[in-house]
Amino acid sequence: MKLKMVDTCDEQIIHDALVVEIQEELPRVGGMVQLFKALADETRLKIAYSLTLKQELCVCDVGAIIGSSNATASHHLRYLKENGLARSERRGKMVYYSLADDHVLQLVKIAHEHTMEGEVNG
């Protein structure tokens, strides 16, 4: 007895014009891949989400929020900054981080809302 796969086409029919149209519209995705890799780490996502709750946080507070040393918090914050997701500002002896822009804030919020919908509907 052969099992039928329900999530694949029963016939292989390529819609050439559609494929070409979409291929011509596809952007280079390397930057997007890096963005999602940066947020794929649980600690960095917690940090990014924390920065949606408060516009800026110092490294010391981030360390306390994620339960780590300042060095570990600084490492994760620097990674977010290097990948265009956060920015920093030194004020005297303190360094404060914020999300790079509203796009990052929206990505994190939308991801949270999406997972919450899944929990309610699931």
Give me the secondary-structure topology:
Blueprint: H1 16-25, H2 30-39, H3 42-53, E1 57-58, H4 59-66, H5 70-82, E2 86-91, E3 94-99, H6 102-121
Antiparallel strand pairs: 1-3, 2-3
Helix pairs in contact: 3-6, 4-5
Entry keywords:
122 residues; mainly alpha; 3 strands; elongated; three-stranded antiparallel sheet
Summarize the structure.
The chain is mainly alpha-helical. It has helices at 16-25, 30-39, 42-53, 59-66, 70-82, 102-121, and strands spanning 57-58, 86-91, 94-99.
Task: Write a structural description.
The chain has 122 residues and is mainly alpha-helical. It is built from six helices and three strands; from the N terminus they run αααβααββα. β2 and β3 form a beta hairpin. The radius of gyration is 20 Å and the shape is elongated. The model has no long low-confidence stretch (mean pLDDT 93).
